[in-house]
UniProtKB/TrEMBL annotation:
Protein name: Uncharacterized protein
Superkingdom field: Eukaryota
InterPro entries assigned to the protein according to its UniProt record, in alphabetical order: LRR_dom_sf
Length: 118
């Protein structure tokens, strides 16, 4: 991630089992032009940190089959450009925390389209 987030013209990032660590950090000013991000099949990912000012152009985020991930990153609430969030094949607790009234709903309440598929 430290290398990818510095690519100034990266607009789409899709990865199947593309990250093997337990913790991922997206730094401030990282991924400046990223519009679409898909995380799929990251079996070890437990914690994702997004610093304020990261991914400020993100319009679509899909998180699929990352069953150890506890929640979306705190910094996601500052990404005002995010229009679509799709959650697929995730733990039930992850899904419930993001639904209206869930403990992490405040992180995604600004997103117009949130889809849960299992």
């Amino acid at each position: 991630m430290p290398i990818l987030e510095k690519l100034p013209y990266l607009r789409v990032l899709r990865g199947w089992e593309a990250f093997i660590g337990k913790q991922m950090v997206c730094s401030k000013k990282g991924f400046p032009q990223l519009k679409s991000l898909l995380f799929r099949g990251l079996p070890n990912l437990q914690e994702w940190t997004m610093e304020t000012g990261a991914m400020l152009s993100l319009g679509r985020l899909e998180i699929t089959d990352c069953n150890k991930l506890e929640t979306v990153p705190d910094g996601l609430k500052f990404v005002s450009t995010l229009q679509e969030l799709e959650i697929r094949w995730m733990r039930r607790a992850f899904k419930h925390s993001l639904e209206g009234g869930g403990e992490d709903f405040y992180e995604v309440q600004q997103v117009p389209s949130i889809t849960f598929l299992n």
